[in-house]
């Protein structure tokens, strides 16, 4: 099994370790090695033996296959600008964690001879005004056959239409970002440390990043792009026609109870609903300001009532993994490696005899 040198550096960065930090980790496992020797491994000047690879796997939390997986994963950089203000070490760690997950995903698809195709249904759709955004959201719902009903699972929706979704854990103040894999396939990355306890925010973040992927916004500045993608997320989660049906076309007041029930049905925050109502002329600016004044006064700005109780995950990778097992396209040990688990843990967790 070939050892790909730069995979060691990737694994080290993924764990947030310096060369000395990795040497210290190995020492705790009973394997003494200098950072200079580790650097030679990373530069390809020398190759670790099987025993050392075992220690490296233990220290870095990866399986042996990790160091031989040559699946190409390169990311675009447009949406990575969102990470530019975060500490370089954590930014690099996030990128390597995501690449590892994507690499295993792509390898599994290759083994099963699957090709995930992506087609942008809004290619060439002109976006110059807010009205264009509503029209784009309506067109997308038509193309993806969603209708006007609430979207039950935004992450599954993205994966069904050729967009990879990877979920990470990071303490940086980042909800999500989007990029492309190998210049073609779109990828949305969601930070569950910020989103898992707040599913309506997770849904909104996923749809916001979908806006960056689908909408033609190159002619706009960054601030306008963000505003349009925010509006796109709201328009997708709560279509204009449904706003008018649920709220009417003109209201002087809205109750928190009413907003809360709509939040629980459509999976969109009360604040986003009010913003949609204002932009569509259902309420005026004065009513909108009064709402936010009361929201702040009650401490609801960052902790809304009426939690959305939905399901925001995709099981596609796991389904493909067990499909590969059943069809004997992959062995049990390969399935464990693709899932980044020890074989014994994989068997136990999945109750495989």
Tell me the number of strands: 3
CATH architecture of the domain at 1-70: Orthogonal Bundle
Which percent band covers the strand fraction? 5-15%
What is the CA–CA distance across the termini?
Answer: 28 Å
Give the overall form: elongated
Radius of gyration equals 23 Å
Q: Strand order, main sheet: write it out.
A: 1-3-2
Description:
- This protein has 353 residues and is mainly α.
- Among the domains are: 1-70, Orthogonal Bundle (434 Repressor (Amino-terminal Domain)); 316-349, no CATH class.
- It is built from 17 helices and three strands.
- The chain has helices at 5-14, 19-28, 35-43, 50-60, 88-111, 130-143, 154-160, 192-195, 199-214, 222-237, 240-247, 256-266, 270-279, 285-297, 316-326, 332-338, 343-349, and strands spanning 164-168, 176-181, 185-191.
- The chain has a three-stranded mixed β-sheet, with helices on both faces.
- Helix 1 crosses helix 5 (88-111), helix 9 crosses helix 10 and helix 16 (332-338) packs across helix 17 (343-349).
- The longest helix is centred in the N-terminal third of the chain and has 24 residues, at 88-111.
- The two termini are 28 Å apart.
